[in-house]
Write a sequence for this structure.
C-alpha cells in the first residue's frame, strides 16, 4: 500500500497588503516543556523553516517587530498565532505543520469638530473651530 502525504496549504503570497518581513526571529519550542529547540530568522520573503522535526507537539513563537501588533488568529489563511505570537502545532510522522503570522502597525484617525454657523459645510479656513468648555 502506497502512502500519500497531504501537502500543507500554501502560505499567503505577499501582496501590496501582505509583504514578507525579513529578519523576524522565530522559535520552535517543545510543546510539553516549553524548552527552545531551535531558533531561526525569516528570509527576504518572510519565510522560515525548521527541518528534521520529530513527530510531536510544538509551540512556534514569532517575535514581533518593534511597533507591530499581531493580526488576530484566523484573519489570514493559516494565521494561527495568538496575541503573544505563539501557536501550538502537532507534527505527524513525515508531516509538515504550517504557522503563518500577520503583523500590522496601528494607524490614526483624525478630524476636526466645528460649529457650522452657515450650515454650508465643509469648514473653510476662515471659519475657526470653537472651543467649548468641557462638561466632564
Amino acid at each position: 500500500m502506497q502512502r500519500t502525504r497531504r501537502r500543507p496549504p500554501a502560505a499567503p503570497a505577499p501582496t501590496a497588503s501582505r509583504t514578507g518581513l525579513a529578519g523576524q526571529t522565530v522559535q520552535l519550542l517543545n510543546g510539553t516543556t516549553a524548552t527552545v529547540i531551535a531558533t531561526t530568522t525569516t528570509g527576504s520573503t518572510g519565510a522560515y523553516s525548521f527541518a528534521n522535526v520529530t513527530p510531536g507537539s510544538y509551540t512556534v513563537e514569532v517575535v514581533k517587530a518593534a511597533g507591530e501588533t499581531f493580526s488576530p488568529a484566523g484573519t489570514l489563511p493559516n494565521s494561527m498565532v495568538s496575541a503573544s505570537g505563539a501557536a501550538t502545532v502537532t507534527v505527524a510522522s513525515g508531516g509538515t505543520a504550517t504557522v503563518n503570522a500577520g503583523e500590522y502597525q496601528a494607524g490614526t484617525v483624525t478630524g476636526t469638530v466645528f460649529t457650522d454657523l452657515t450650515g454650508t459645510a465643509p469648514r473653510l479656513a476662515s471659519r475657526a473651530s470653537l472651543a467649548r468648555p468641557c462638561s466632564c
Summary: The beta strands are 25-30, 36-41, 56-62, 69-70, 86-91, 103-104. The domain at 25-104 is CATH 2.60.40.10 (Immunoglobulin-like).
